[in-house]
Structure formats: structure tokens, C-alpha cells
Amino acid sequence: MQWTEAKVIFDFHDKELAAELISDVFYGIGVTGLVIESPDAEPTEDDWADGVQQTPEHHAVIAYFPKNDLIEERCRALENKLINLEQTQGVVSRILYREMDEEDWSESWKEFFWPEKISRNIVVKPTWREYSPAENEIVLEIDPGMAFGTGTHPTTALCIRMIEKYLKPGASFFDVGTGSGILMVAAAKLGATYLLGTDKDEVAVEIAEKNLLLNNINPEKFRVMTAHLTSGVTEKFDMVAANILSQVIVILLDDVKNILAQDGIFICSGIVEENRDTVTEKMRALSFELLEIQSEQGWVAIAGKRKTGDR
Length: 311
What we know:
Elements: E1 2-11, H1 15-28, E2 34-37, E3 48-49, E4 52-53, E5 60-66, H2 71-89, E6 92-101, H3 102-105, E7 116-117, E8 122-126, E9 138-142, H4 154-166, E10 172-176, H5 182-189, E11 194-199, H6 202-214, E12 222-226, E13 237-243, H7 246-259, E14 260-272, H8 276-285, E15 288-296, E16 299-306
Parallel strand pairs: 8-9, 10-11, 10-13, 11-12, 13-14
Antiparallel strand pairs: 1-5, 1-6, 2-5, 3-4, 7-8, 14-16, 15-16
Helix pairs in contact: 1-2, 4-5, 7-8
């Protein structure tokens, strides 16, 4: 498979803030796996080769796009959003594009990802790292591929914490816009007995299925398919999760009630703080009972319940 590396080199007085703002631009166009380079970073043993220190020349945020029908749209969106970022925030940047084969990156980028505990009991572990779990810890093995991170971004972590809190053993679970499949893996390991995931990106569907099998999830208990949101889904689920953009969540809510079982739980994340009220107001208008709202680093996740007797 061919990939396009998008490297955004930037200059701003607050480098950490600029990296965060540019990362949010990438997240906003559906990229969740990023590498942040900094000349100021402390070197590790892996940063040395033949006695020469490998230090990035520039501050940069790097992401990878699969070279498919969406590539031109994503690149245009990235360029327009960066122009807007310079006009509104003063973050000066330039983009370097590079085409890559899968084997060209398969090893080099892995040094950036390590096991991380993201909830009370759940640890996300990249497949290439060793980790000895403590008692009661649940380990999610993730091989994200270039399009996705390992699931430790706040939007994903918030979602998994809510799944851990509200999912009942034996429940059915539907992940809208599954990406790497990490929410499905978490739900399965927390006791869900039937899982469905959809994504409009065929690459995501392949990666999600791979990660489910990697975690020894019985293939008879899950299904991952290429589809837009809930298109083609007629079953009802005890829990539906969506870690996507808030604008899409507002649209999705109109269909969610049709696929939620009575007293079913809807968990949504990927919501920026300023869009929080838009989502909660839509949920209330559709008679959802708001159970909990959590926030972290400017991102918000919401859990809501379909009320008994609601139609």
C-alpha cells in the first residue's frame, strides 16, 4: 500500500501549544496517529547510531494518509486549516509531503509508542513492546498502522473509561467509525458478547479486524464493515459508541435512537469543549438522560441513556 507522509514544520513562540493546535487540525480531518518531533527533546539510547546523535532539525507534527480516494480532500482540508491557524493564532507552518511504501516506515516510527495505562484497569500496549500486567489489569494489544495512534489520545481514553464504567457483561456493542478497532477490543475484554464496527475507510476496517484477532477475540462474536456511520445497520445494541467529530455526532444522534435498545447507553467523544453544549442540547432534545460528562485537555466525552419507554 502507498502512503503519503504529511510533515508540518512550524514556528511559534510557544512550541508546545503550536504542536497541540496542529495536532488538533490533524484530528479534525480524521487522523489519530501522529508523531511530534522536537529538536529540544531529550535523547534516548534509540536516538543514537554509530555514535551520531539523531536530533530533528525542526519542530514538526507528522501524520500519514493512505493514498486512496480521500487523499486529495484530506490534503486540501489540512492546507486550509493551517492557513486559518496562521491567520487566527499566528502559528506559521509549511507542509512537506512524501510518498512512502508500507515497508519504508514499518520499523522507524514504532519508537514513539509505549504501553500506557489509560483507565482504572486498562493498559494500551503496542504489539512490539513488552509489558507485565499487574493484577486486574486488562491489556489491549494494538498494532495501529500508520493511520491511527495506539489509543492513548484523550478522546479515546475518555471513551474507554466510560465503556469500562457503563458496559454490562453480556451486552452488545456497536462502534461507529471504529478506526483501529480499539473501542471494540476494549468492549470485548470488558464482557461484550457481540460487537459491530463500521468505518467508511477500508483501511480502518482491515486494521480493526486485525486488532480484534490479535487480541484473541472470537471472530464469530464480531463484525467490521465498510459503511458510513449506521448505514445498513438494523440491529439494536445495548451500547453504541462514537469517537468522531462533534458535527458528525449531532447528525448521528438522529439515527442512534433507532439502534439503541431500551435503556441502552450512547457514549460519544471527539468533542471539543466549545461544541459541548451543541451535543448535549441535541441529546436532551431527543430525550436522552445525560449520565456523565468528562473532559480532558480540551476534549469532552458524554454518556447518555435512552430512557425506558422512549420511542
